[in-house]
Amino acid sequence: MEHIAIIGNGIAGITAARHIRKKSDKKITVISAENKYFFSRTALMYVYMGHMKFEHTQPYEDWFWKKNNINLRQGFVEKVNTDNKTLVFTSGETLTYDKLVIAVGSKPNKFGWSGQDLEGVTGMYSKQDLEKIEALALNAMVCKRAVIVGGGLIGIELAEMLRSRNIPVTFLVRENSFWDMVLPSGESQMINKHIKEHHIDLRLGANLKEILPDENGKARAVVIAETGEEIACDFVGLTAGVSPNIHFLKESGIALGRGVKVNRFLETNIKDIYAIGDCAEQQEPVNGRRPIEATWYTGKIMGKTVAQTICGNKTAYQPGHWFNSAKFLDIEYQTYGWVHGLAGKPDYEKQFHWKHPQKNVCVTLAYHKETNQFLGINTFGIRMRHEVFNHWLNEKKSIDFVIENLREANFDPEFYSGSEPFIKKAFFHLSKTLHK
After folding, report:
1. Do 300 and 314 touch, CB atoms closer than 8 A?
2. Which residue, 341, 407, 388, 397, is CA-closest to 368?
3. Residues 294 and 356 in one domain
4. CA-CA distance, 141 to 160, in Å (whole number)?
5. Are 225 and 231 in contact (CB under 8 A)?
6. Domain assignment of residue 218, given as a range
7. Tens digits of per-residue pLDDT, 63-77?
8. Stretch 264-286: mean pLDDT, rounded?
9. Of the four listed, 38, 135, 209, 331, which is most buried by Cβ atoms within 10 Å?
């Protein structure tokens, strides 16, 4: 019986295992050193905030895996021997495979800061990170102040977590406006204001120089590079992005770049070895997408795709239009298609931005300045229907059509019954002004 080994039990690896099982009776072993059972990584913050227990983050009952004949093995793979198709664990044990799926995800970035490995310093990615944060930042008595380094989605989640326990937070963001390499200016400015309204000490244009230790080797302060200011703290959260967790593959012969290099079929350079999820680097990115995409839904699509190929139906990875969602404190965010921030905005992309005069609600629509083709939309404080925008993008609808039919895409008719006319009026007023 063919043996499929999957390293990593995140959304990509588990989706691959489930779909291989649906399509075959192959032997499947899923390996993880983090936790025996699959859990929702995006829900970890809610465990700390008291909204959930950790067991609530596990969508499948413990008996599910045995019933579906999926073997779970806890352990850390330190080496992949591709010549004899063997995995070597830190324990010294080995496991042979016929086909291997690498789905090991990401790890928090570290940039060689002095003090980055001190006690009291951690990222926010794994179950073990959550356990460290729980111990280091139990409450405002244990943690008098926390400093977060890095202004992405994980950083703002960590800030929300800590503030839920009334821990003072200083947030160091190297950009001049929050996430402005991704978000257009109007959206970024709104989030700056929202962060400060939640009593978070937001420091824009601020880089970490070093983390200072106390006499016991624990973090006691950070130093800001630009000013030399020293900020006393009991906890430092490093959230300056993530990178593929591929260090154990360096001697394997598997082609590596920033991640594990794969073709459109998620195959590596070595026969019978595949890579999916955050650790996979597309050598031929699809439709202008990034070579590495660390998002839940792309990992899920890759898992389904590689299962098809492993089960004899060779299938190319087709992620479709870009989509993502997140939460900035209590503002929900969704994006469909392409709406660029400062980074990489093409000359042909034009944007229309509308913000509610009183609420933290806004939309930004991107379109081609010459053809008027709709390119994408960002929404804040509004829930939109993914399938509607997917259809409009496929059909290459015009920006005028999208504006006229926004109500069709909206989950929140109460909002649009009051604001849709103002959005339309603002857009068409702008259009007339520009064409004069």
Report:
1. no
2. 397
3. no
4. 18
5. no
6. 121-240
7. 999 999 999 999 999
8. 96
9. 38
Report the alpha-carbon distance of residue 284 to residue 264 in Å, rounded. 7
Chain-centroid distance of CA 102 in Å reads: 18
What average pLDDT score do residues 103-130 get? 95
Does residue 258 lie within any of the structural domains? yes
Helix (H) or strand (E) holding 94: strand 94-96
Query: Residue 84, Cβ neighbours under 10 Å: how many?
Result: 7
C-alpha to C-alpha distance for 327 and 372, rounded to whole angstroms: 30
> Is residue 327, in this structure, part of any structural domain at all?
yes
Rounded CA gap, 10 and 34, in Å? 10
Both 234 and 274 in one domain: the answer is no
pLDDT at 428: 77
Q: How many CA atoms lie within 13 A of 101 on its CB side?
A: 37
In a 10 Å sphere around its CB, with 0-12 CB exposed, 13-18 middle and 19+ buried, how is residue 287 labelled?
A: exposed
Asked whether residue 315 is domain-assigned, the answer is no
Dist. CA 261–CA 339, nearest whole Å: 27
- Please report, as a single letter, which amino acid is at residue 36: K
If we measure between CA atoms, which residue out of 230, 210, 242 comes closest to residue 121? 210
Model confidence at 229, pLDDT cuts 50, 70, 90, reads very high
225 and 195 within one domain? yes
In a domain, residue 318? The reply is: no
Written as one letter, the residue type at 408 is E
Reported as a single tens digit per residue, the pLDDT across 237-260 is 999 999 999 999 999 999 999 999
For residue 142, the 8-state DSSP code is T
At 376-433, the pLDDT tens digits run 999 998 888 999 999 999 999 999 999 999 888 887 655 555 567 778 888 876 665 5
